[in-house]
Design a protein that fits this description.
357 residues; Rossmann fold; single chain; alpha/beta; nine-stranded mixed sheet
Length: 357
């Protein structure tokens, strides 16, 4: 079954039109590591490079990081193969009949089809689930449940609002703010920069299509902003003492290797200026796992249905959970101080504020 991509590619066509119309008032630069030196170039908006050319990453590292952040859109999935896998599974969360029913329901809406094809979401769908989906009247009952009732999705929506509040409270003139991975740049574009001067925004992402849509967002909401884009891995930023604040969500819970997560935090630490702030988050263990779960105020049936979808049906890639104590330990090992945790009302997606002294 082929995913319907019409609306997605329409966005890209619209972004091209906007670029041609507005390129005199806003310039966007993607910086890439080439031949051992950093060079800047204005790239055509429909360029679709799938690798960071000339970077210091090996092909294995690049492939691993692309899987972590689920940027590669495969475009197809085999419904019968998924159904056969469910039939052979020894211990499903829900009944076989119920999970097959849910599987077929997921083919009825675009987000469901994308999840089936990829086991995760990209920048476009992150913006949809955090911002645009909750504002829509969703006709499909399962899509409505995913956006408005599933514990992890709704907790992440609350986490997004906490990010906005915490970043906003720290904004000053002459700051350099980085979003890593930037997705569509919503985490920085939704802030109020009134009365602030010389604020620079940097979007870092390994996915070219997310960078294209981020440019469209810039043109729509802040066409006169000072913005640049870096197409590279968060693990290989290749910069020191550069940013006053880094915001990052969605990388650590795709990475099960604790040492690699420490490496991610070390990359952020190195990139921050002295006194710089990291605003990040992590996913806590759900009930029924080997680790103690801090989850509260959740509906048990919703939690079971979410687990059936993410674990049994999707075999989702974002299942690397961590406790608060482990996250604190990892951030401290990377060099961070003054670490503060802010919980959502269900204790599912805590926000973390950490400082480079």
């Amino acid at each position: 079954m082929r995913i319907v991509k019409f609306s997605f590619w329409c966005l890209i066509v619209v972004s091209l039109s906007l670029w041609l119309w507005a390129n005199k008032s806003a310039k966007f630069v993607i910086l890439e590591k080439q031949g051992g030196t950093s060079s800047s170039q204005v790239r055509n908006i429909n360029t679709r490079d799938q690798e960071a050319k000339g970077s210091s990453m090996s092909s294995d590292e690049l492939e691993s990081n692309e899987k972590i952040i689920t940027h590669e859109v495969k475009g197809t999935f085999n419904l019968q193969s998924i159904e056969n896998r469910l039939r052979k599974a020894p211990n499903l969360i829900l009944s076989l009949e119920k999970e097959i029913e849910i599987l077929h329901q997921m083919t009825e809406f675009e987000l469901g089809r994308f999840l089936l094809a990829n086991g995760g979401i990209n920048g476009y769908w992150t913006a949809y689930w955090l911002i645009h989906g909750p504002q829509k009247k969703l006709e499909n009952p399962l899509e409505d449940w995913l956006i408005n009732r599933s514990p992890s999705f709704t907790a992440s929506q609350e986490r997004y609002k906490i990010f906005q509040r915490e970043i906003q409270s720290r904004l000053r003139s002459n700051m350099k703010l980085a979003s890593i991975p930037c997705g569509l740049m919503d985490s920085l574009l939704g802030l109020d920069y009134t009365h602030l001067e010389n604020v620079e925004l940097i979007g870092v992402d390994i996915d070219q299509e997310s960078l294209i849509l981020a440019k469209e967002n810039i043109l729509k909401y802040r066409p006169n902003a000072k913005v640049s884009f870096l197409k590279k891995s968060a693990w290989h930023l290749d910069t020191s003492d550069s940013y006053d604040l880094i915001t990052s969500n969605g990388l650590n819970f795709y990475e099960a290797d604790d040492r690699k997560v420490v490496g991610l935090y070390k990359s952020f630490f190195k990139a921050l200026k002295p006194g710089g702030i990291l605003v990040t988050s992590f996913l806590t263990p759900p009930p029924g796992t080997a680790q103690p779960s801090p989850w509260i105020n959740f509906n048990r049936d919703d939690a079971l249905m979410q687990k059936a979808i993410f674990v049994d049906i999707l075999q989702a890639k974002w299942q690397a959970t961590r406790t608060e104590s482990l996250t604190r330990q990892q951030l401290e090992e990377a060099g961070f101080k003054n670490i503060k945790f802010i919980n959502d009302k269900r204790n599912i997606f805590p926000t973390v504020i950490a400082q480079k002294e």
